[in-house]
Structure prediction request, 167 residues.
Amino acid sequence: MLLRNEIDECLGMIRLLEDSFQTAKKEGFSLSFFEENNSRIYRLKKAVNELESLQWQLEEQQRKNNTETETNHKKEESMAVSVELLADKIGKKLYSDIQSSLSLNDRFRFQKSLFYDDGRLMSETLGYLNGLDSFGEAEKYLNEQFAWDWESESPAAFREILEKHFP
Prediction:
């Protein structure tokens, strides 16, 4: 229930932002427009981060509560491998633009955890990566520019997206 309320609150903030932008397009941009929407965007980012945190907590709790027998575990592993193979076949879609392949949650997460909460740095980096020819070049560039631990959650997720982008 709490999670649903948080989601509804985020959707409400998004609607307010959308309405505000539509009004500003018609009537012009005032100083109060920027102040109000900057505040709304900050609250939205904060709410999305809280949702992401709740999601991670729920996933962690689900992992801890998994106490099935070894036989069931083997069946699950077998099914997981089958699902993973199917997902690989389906998921090998190449993205022509890295930024467009990112979900809203991924954009917020990567901007915050990988790009020092700097949207411009993230956009410039993604633009540069789009111009590269191979995953190897992209990985080399990122290793030169950033000190990421590729085994960590966000860098690993970003790597998966890059692998889908490059042939």
In short: The CA atoms of residues 111 and 119 lie 6 Å apart. Helices lie at 2-27, 31-65, 70-91, 104-113, 119-130, 135-145, 153-165.
